Amino acid sequence: MIDAVVEAQPPQLGVTIVSTARASATEHDVVWQITNEGRDAVEILESWLPHGQFYADREPCSPASRLKPGAGVRIGRRVRCGGEGDEVENAFLILQLRSGGAAWRLFTRLRVIKEAGGAVRPVAEAVTLQPVGFAVREAEVGPTTT
Predict the structure, then answer these.
(1) Rg from Cα positions in the chain
(2) 57-78 b/e (C-beta count within 10 Å ≥ 16 → b)
(3) Residue 5 — pLDDT band, cuts 50, 70, 90?
(4) How far apart are CA 116 and CA 133, in angstroms?
(5) Could you write out the DSSP letters of every residue in the chain?
(6) What is the structure's pLDDT at 139?
């Protein structure tokens, strides 16, 4: 008997930083445009920014944003920005998604430049997708080899 696993195709999403506005001495309102560039609908379930110097709690999208192919949505978050230095490296916007019957996480790696006067300018450096639980499955099954 052969066990077969059918892998869901990852969603294809574009991420653009639309705007930033200083809300207080340590908080900034940041808006991202998320665009579904794939063939399947995508639901955005929640978002968070876990870096200690560019941080926002996990927050559900209520109701979930459902993006048909070609559609986009803006997601705004109030982000705490602190710490020393002129920039924050390796901050992430993380989105929990559902597409094609599978759960996914989108990781947008950010470099955040702290500008004069307290403004911040996040720069998206990379966008990657991972199926939820992939590390657990690989640990249970072992790495795949060809």
Answers:
(1) 17
(2) eeeebeeebebeeeeeeebebe
(3) low
(4) 41
(5) -----PPPPPP-EEEEEEEEEE-SSSEEEEEEEEEE-SSS-EEEEEEEEEETTEEEEEEEEEEEEEE-TT-EEEEEEEEEE-SSSSEEEEEEEEEEEEETTEEEEEEEEEEEEEPGGG-EEEEEEEEEEEETTHHHHHHHH-----
(6) 47
Report whether the peptide linkage leading into residue 63 is cis, meaning its omega lies within 30 degrees of zero: yes
How many Å apart are CA 93 and CA 36, to the nearest integer? 16
**pLDDT for 145 beyond 90:** no
- Supply the mean pLDDT for the chain: 88
Cβ–Cβ under 8 Å, residues 31 and 18: yes
Kindly state the tokens that stand for 56.
């926002």
Do 34 and 73 form a contact (C-beta atoms < 8 A)? yes
Q: Residue written as tokens 């390796």?
A: 90
Instruction: HSE, CB side, 13 Å, CA atoms: give it for residue 45.
Output: 10
Residue (of 82, 78, 107, 89) closest to 20 by Cα position: 78
Exposed, middle or buried, 42 (CB in 10 Å: 0-12/13-18/19+)?
buried
